[in-house]
Amino acid sequence: MANAAIRGGVAAFVVAGTFVLGAATATTLPSAAATPPSVSADSRGRADPDAGCGPDQTAVVRGRTALSAVAICTDGRGHYEYRGVRLSDRAVLVLPARPMSNGCFGARSDAVDYTVSERKLLLTAGLRVLRDESMTEFADYRIPTVVAQQTANHQIR
Fold this sequence. Notes:
The chain contains one helix and eleven strands; from the N terminus they run H-E-E-E-E-E-E-E-E-E-E-E. The protein has 157 residues and is α+β, with helices and mostly antiparallel strands. Strand 7 and strand 8 form a beta hairpin. The termini are far apart.
């Protein structure tokens, strides 16, 4: 009988903790837009004027999530830059970036790490995930476009 009471108390504590954590997360993170607007990019990867590369830079990758627009830019001398725009308030963040061994790009601001991949924009603080935003659009300008033309009898690549 005592074990059942202890288990019931532990279960109530876990449920209450989960509710408090969920409420805290819901109040600190803005909600996602229902459908992000679709935009085209120019040769510099400009999805938005604020997320585009500078005049002496070219886009390496660019992406868009429901909450953000990002571009990784290079000056052609091995220096990379993360340019991100939070779509809800158009806040701009520009940071030095670095290529990672897995093909992704990383940047760091204070204690927050930003990782850009073809699948997501990930914001972490240590082991804690702050945001995990799926890419809705992504362009990787490092990969040459393969043009395939099909004729009636064969394919030309």
